[in-house]
Amino acid sequence: MERLEAAGVDPITPAHATVLAHLDPETSLSVAELARRAGVTRQTMHRAVTQLLGEGLLTRSPGPGFPRSTLIGLTDAGCQRRDVALGILRDLEQVLGSRLGPAALTELRSSLTQAWPQ
Question: What sign does the CA torsion over 87, 89, 90, 96 have?
Fold first, then answer.
């Protein structure tokens, strides 16, 4: 959180991170698909998406198929916040790797991936 503040970026809640982690500038997804990828309910994902739409970080556009189908994408501001947060996470991972060593970091990543697969 301190690094986000130092970068001039508003904090990212865990719910917001769940949304932003599954989008990139070239990809728009439905709320249902975002929820499936994140392993949360559609209601939980809808709540986070609604907050991020309100902050101007996401776009909503008509989707194919059903009339009420919508696709969620990133705005330029959403891309910026996501990119800054990902850069901070990479830096923190390097710090963690330097403290634990490469083998322990690899083992930790493997354990976390097993606990929370994508």
Answer: positive
Read off the pLDDT band of 81 (50, 70, 90).
Answer: confident
The answer on pLDDT for 118 being more than 60 is no
Rounded Cα–Cα distance for residues 103 and 71 (Å): 40
Among residues 34, 20, 22, 17, which one has the least CA distance to residue 75? Answer: 20
Q: Answer yes or no: are the C-beta atoms of 92 and 85 closer than 8 Å.
A: no
Are the beta carbons of 75 and 56 closer than 8 angstroms?
A: yes
Cα 101 to chain centroid, rounded: 27
**For residues 24 and 73, what is the distance between their CA atoms, to the nearest angstrom?**
8
Segment 33-42, tens digit of pLDDT: 999 988 889 9
Q: 48 near 18, Cβ under 8 Å?
A: yes
